[in-house]
Amino acid sequence: MTTAPARIAAPENGLGTAALIVGILAAVICAVPVLGLLGAPLALIGLGLSIPGLMRANAGRATNRGSAIAGLVLSILALLACLLWVVVGVVAASDSSPQTGTTNSSAEDVTGAKDQPAGADVSSSDKTVAVGKAVVIDDFGGRGRASVTVTDVKSSVTSTNEFVTPDAGNKYVAARVTIKNVGKETYENVSWFGAKVYTAQGQAYDADPLGETALDEALPMNIDLKPGGTVAGWILFEIPAKGKVSSVVFDDAEWGL
User: If we measure between CA atoms, which residue out of 200, 195, 186 comes closest to residue 234?
Assistant: First the structure.
């Protein structure tokens, strides 16, 4: 009586082969600047396929150990490439963002600003100046330059828009600001962005660009001044009804009351 030959199990090479294919795709995609981040999921899938594929080969259940190893190496390299693009992006973003204390590095360096007559231009590097003094400020791009002056502050103003009023327990206050382009380039700024008042308690309150009052012309939201041009108007702020304004901030300059 003859016995049937023992059946030999087919090698389980599927995981190792898939790991190699996915690893190649991940490595190719991750090599592309910026877009390479899209290859990170493929690289993770490649790792998930190559490790069990390698385990099968080590256990003798698969014969393509080399494919599994190649898929593992390519997936790791793809992940490292993604990490590199992340680092490059973070460094590029930090280099392009404005640095604290450098926005107005080109402003005039004037000492003894407190002793200068009212209306004299001083540098925005001075911590606080009196209402009526002009402060030289660079715009966001660092090209335009303007002389900015807070000329008046109203401790309470009434809204003329029945639909836009201060919240219960609050009130509107207003600061009149005059801006003159003293540079050779167009001065661009957003009037309410970065504008705020401090109360005597030290709390800051941002500008309210939607408020309307009976005061004369409001300061335009978008400041776009040609060299020599001038614009003036009021900026509104909403503060507690019992609050008292102690200073006004425009950009990085501050006027104390």
Answer: 195
Measured CA to CA in angstroms, residue 16 lies from 24, 66, 71 at distances of 12, 8, 7
Quick check: 136 and 146 in contact, CB under 8 A? yes
Cα distances (Å, whole numbers) of residue 142 to 114, 125, 232: 26, 15, 21
The 3-state DSSP composition of the chain as helix, strand, coil percent (nearest 5) reads 30, 30, 40
Instruction: Give 127-132 contacts, CB < 8 A, sequence gap 24+.
Output: 127/254, 128/247, 128/254, 128/255, 128/256, 129/253, 129/254, 129/255, 129/256, 130/255, 130/256, 131/248, 131/255, 131/256, 131/257
User: In this predicted model, which residue has the larger pLDDT, 101 or 23?
Assistant: 23
* Owner of token pair 């776009």: 224
What are phi and psi for residue 191, nearest 5 degrees? -60, -40
DSSP string spanning 107-122?
S---S-GGGSPTT-EE
What pLDDT is recorded for position 106? 39
| Selection from 160, 155, 153, 156 nearest residue 213 by Cα | 160
The CA–CA distances, whole Å, from 98 to 105, 141, 191, 192, 197 equal 11, 9, 18, 19, 23
Alpha helices in 31-152, H assignment, sequence order: 40-58, 65-96
**Residue 105 pLDDT grade (very low, low, confident, very high; cuts 50, 70, 90):** very low
